[in-house]
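ok so i was messing around last nite and threw this chain in just to see what happens. nothing serious, just curious
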Amino acid sequence: MKILLAEKKKNHMSALKLALTQIKDCKCKKISSIVIVDEIKKLDEKLKEEKPDILILDGDFLFYQTKDNISSLKALYPEMPILVLTSNFEQEKKFVLAGIEDFIPKDSADKFYEEMVIFLNKESNKKEIEKNNNFKR
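result:
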């Protein structure tokens, strides 16, 4: 599984990357690579280049993204779940309607780990169900 992590702060990048590599309680495919993007301008380029399975977007990036931008992103990459790390849940409803799958708090390492495992397992189960449905056809 390839993850694209969009995060502006270098210390957060390192901590998130380390936390993601430590996830062991997950039924999902092993995380094969974590690609980091630190500027919103580079996000589109990295998405095209890397074709990640999951996009983890720092909540600060949402200030640069509108609901329409997120909807366009989902239109281009409909199979790619978008997860937002945030400590501010005020905009959550607006962006969920635009196609963001989930929000995870980034102010607690334990909570991040728990929520990330739940999210990865949920995505893994979704893909397994889709695969089984395609097989039955």
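not much to say yet. The chain has a mean pLDDT of 77.
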